[in-house]
Amino acid sequence: MTAAGIARLAGVGRAAVSNWRRRHADFPKPVGGTETSPSFALADVERWLRAQGKLAEVPLRERVWQYVAGHPAGPTTALVHAGCVLLLVRDRSPRWPELAARPDALLAEELPGALDEVLTARLGAPRRVTAPSPEALTPSLPLLRAAAALAAEPGGARQAFEFLLGRHLDANPRQYTLTPGGPAGLMAELAVPAGADGASARACTVLDPASGTGALLRAVPGAAVLYAQEADPDLAALTALRLALHSGAEVHAQAGDSLRADAYPGLTADAVLCHPPFNERNWGHEELAYDPRWEYGFPARTESELAWVQHALARLRPGGTAVLLMPPAAASRRSGRRIRADLLRRGALRAVVALPAGAAPPYHLALHLWVLRKPAPGAAAASPALLVVDTSGYAAGGRTGLDWQAVRGAVLDAWVPFGRDGTVAARPGVSRAVPVIELLDDDVDLAPARHLPPVAAGGGAAELADVRDRLAAELRRTGELAPPVAEPDGPAGPAGRPPGVTVGELARGGALTLHAGTATHTGDAAGRVLTEQDVLAGQAPGGRLPDGAAEEHVLVRAGDVVVPVLGGGAVARVVDATAEGAALGRNLHLLRPDPAALDSWFLAGFLRGTANQRQASSYASTATRLDVRRLQLPRLPLAEQQRYGERFRALAEFEQALREAGRLGERLVQGMYDGLTDGTLRA
Questions:
Q1: 3-state SS, residue 214
Q2: What end-to-end distance do the CA atoms of the chain give, in Å?
Q3: Backbone Cα Rg of the chain
Q4: Helix or strand holding residue 562 (H, E)
């Protein structure tokens, strides 16, 4: 296990692990890794932590993950082996209880046969995942027994695998391109809202030709048959197991490049979902020049995304729907205008949806969804219009501030009537059915914002007047809350201060407990996450846990004090009812005071002192990191703490009023600029 794994095991930051290595001669020696990123034996670390009183018991999920991370054949092989056994457990095969009672040597001999049976039943033949040999299984036996035990906990085998796979993806963020649950769910709803041709979704056959981790196919509710193809063979195997564990659908998963080596050349699917790789130059332009899939034109070398669009259409049955996540440049690049024009003329391209920046990676781009229908041979175009939807206005401060439910509602409110009637009432700044003839110019630019009626600036003069009134009221309130500057009630300088105590000493004495944040966040609509940005901005939790996350995160309570540990800013926030119950995000530390010993506002106030934060910070080449345990506060009786706490609470209320006044002022100023420049307001 790595230093990060030790920190997670003990519930501390990585800096604490580095300190232990320096200060304790008996700290376990590295057994692998590199000089800058050493790895340690789980058993040695567990013994040391327990001897130091820093660990009572290793949670089962942490033990299982360490088996995966430390597997001699690598974590991917470990995940495949664990997924095979979890599939056996999920399907309630009577073989597993019998096999689990066997000694290791006999289990390794007999398990491959049982795995082959369940894999054939769930993944068919030929398949991407094969039963491991007894020799390959032998190093995995402790992992397999532990994974089966984890599957007995609430959530079952599916959540056990989601937890392990999620940890692996989180540990290798640059290796995989993930599609968050929010966009994946919306794409599935657009493609199979109630099944093809009004039938149940259970009758649908769905293909993802660039399946990645299987997020898009996993979002389709109850489809009968799922087809996946992924260029990375290891990822294709993990995707096959993930889909098989997720539902009862028939699953087919193959490895290979779908453009160069299509695994399903004869398939006619009801729906295709795809998040293709972007901006690929080496997609097969030379060798695929005469491929029959280019029905709408041969894509230029720079238009790999349009090759994926036509591949998706080629694998659809007539009337089937494809939804692709596309880079915004694909809607306007001149090199692709002829293909875009032909897609429009023939009624194949039905909608272009602009998502807010931060909805999916790469997070700095406002990606598009393209919704396509395969025209029936000889049939007239389905509609002489293209639906354009722009949801960029639903972003409120990056991917942690996405109002995903509003995005989903805006898209479906436009798509459902358009898909049924071929038209929809225009919503200024949001959606419109654009006649195709308007789009067939020299550029064939399909960027939604270019074709929408403008929205009234700032909501119009009436709304701007309301904002101005609210700003005036907030400024009056801010003036009333401005704190008086009290006279010093003791001698100035260090001699007049009461003796101090560090947060680390308070934690050892039981006056408070410390927790490190671990929760990651996406734009999804699952459980809330209090993020670093939320604490810095003084706003409600804006992050969302990834769909299917099975981590046991720290949940914040009212009265907790939350401190960001990166960046060097003097911030400490007392949790109130608006944040209670949210998971504690990364780069945050939580201090939970014993109310009989410590006042929360007193604690937060002294932690914010500039000098206090400076002496507790360490400096690296790229960032400043705060060691929360080194922060200090004075030793004072509880009644005196509460007196300070009331002053700090009043300061926090004044600070929040300043923030709100600033937000209203910015809104009023920009609304006035927009209204004066677009003619909705008079000079």
A1: coil
A2: 67
A3: 29
A4: strand 561-564
